[in-house]
Design goal:
The protein has 270 residues and is an alpha+beta fold. 31% of the residues lie in helices and 18% in strands. It has two domains: 148 residues, Transposase Inhibitor Protein From Tn5, Chain A, domain 1; 79 residues, no CATH class. A hairpin with a 4-residue loop joins strand 7 and strand 8. Helix 5 packs across helix 6. The longest helix is centred in the C-terminal third of the chain and has 27 residues. It is globular. The relative contact order is 0.15.
Length: 270
């Protein structure tokens, strides 16, 4: 679950598996359980990378009333109507151009209609293809971009916070229990960081003029200093629903994120 630039784990499963590719039938029960944990009145948007561009997965989402934004490979075939089929990477895009097609099909399983957002970076030949169950526009790329907040968790686990690999645990069952501990720790530290910012004490542990650390790191530093300085720790875990009062900003010494400007052109499938 994305929260202020951080993905909060709500459910997980550790598999002893011969490959990094996992079939949909293996993890679909996990997704069913995750749907039961979320409030019914919230609009859920499932964001996934190219490894999850599975048409049964897309169909399964509809049974939960979830929406989805899934990146697909350039080699994926699409049907724009009247059996006009082509691979998405054969559709010419100028540098910095975005195009949106509505009511297309994925002929491999005749899944659809779905909607496609395509864009080419103005600075390279990199192209992005995102399918959605809702009509696509420029906001589709922003919504899909929320998926990258989970990358922060992947960074935490091996080196940036929780050295998961150094545990040398090889039992899937034991690792699953350890992941529970890390999930609870992540929730607590993010909550602690939110409380520190709410109380106006962020610069006690994050001296940047603007917030430069994640809420998890702010909470982590606060807990660390509390042990030696007698700071008060929160006793109730909660995540504020208010907008982020201090969005993080990269320092000027760090490489600035690449901006993605596009020219829009609208196409409708036949």
């Amino acid at each position: 679950m994305v929260y202020r630039g951080r993905a909060i784990p709500i459910i997980w499963k550790v598999l002893e598996h011969p490959s990094s590719s996992v079939a949909y039938d293996v993890y679909k029960d996990l997704l069913d359980r995750s749907a039961q944990l979320l409030p019914l009145h919230c609009k859920g948007i499932f964001c996934a990378d190219r490894g999850f561009a599975d048409t049964p997965l897309m169909a399964h989402r509809r049974s939960w009333n979830w929406h989805w934004r899934i990146r697909i490979k350039g080699s994926c075939w699409i049907d724009r109507g009247d059996d006009h089929r082509s691979k998405v990477n054969r559709i010419a895009l100028s540098s910095g151009e975005a195009r949106f097609w509505h009511g297309i099909y994925i002929p491999a399983r005749r899944d659809g209609p779905v909607h496609l957002a395509m864009a080419r970076s103005p600075e390279s030949t990199e192209q992005w293809f995102v399918v959605s169950d809702e009509p696509t526009d420029m906001n589709t790329f922003e919504e899909y971009g929320l998926r990258f907040d989970s990358e922060e968790n992947f960074l935490d686990n091996p080196s940036h916070g929780f050295p998961l690999e150094s545990s040398l645990i090889r039992s899937a069952e034991a690792l699953e229990r350890l992941c529970c501990v890390l999930a609870v720790a992540t929730l607590y530290l993010v909550s602690q960081g939110v409380e520190v910012v709410t109380q106006g004490k962020r610069q006690w542990v994050d001296p940047h003029w603007f917030r430069g650390s994640s809420y998890l790191k702010i909470g982590w530093h606060w807990v660390t200093r509390a042990r030696s300085h007698g700071y008060e720790l929160m006793t109730r875990v909660q995540l504020s629903a208010e907008a982020d009062p201090e969005p993080a900003r990269a320092s000027k010494s760090q490489p600035q994120p690449r901006r993605f400007f596009v020219r829009e052109s609208q196409d409708a499938a036949a």
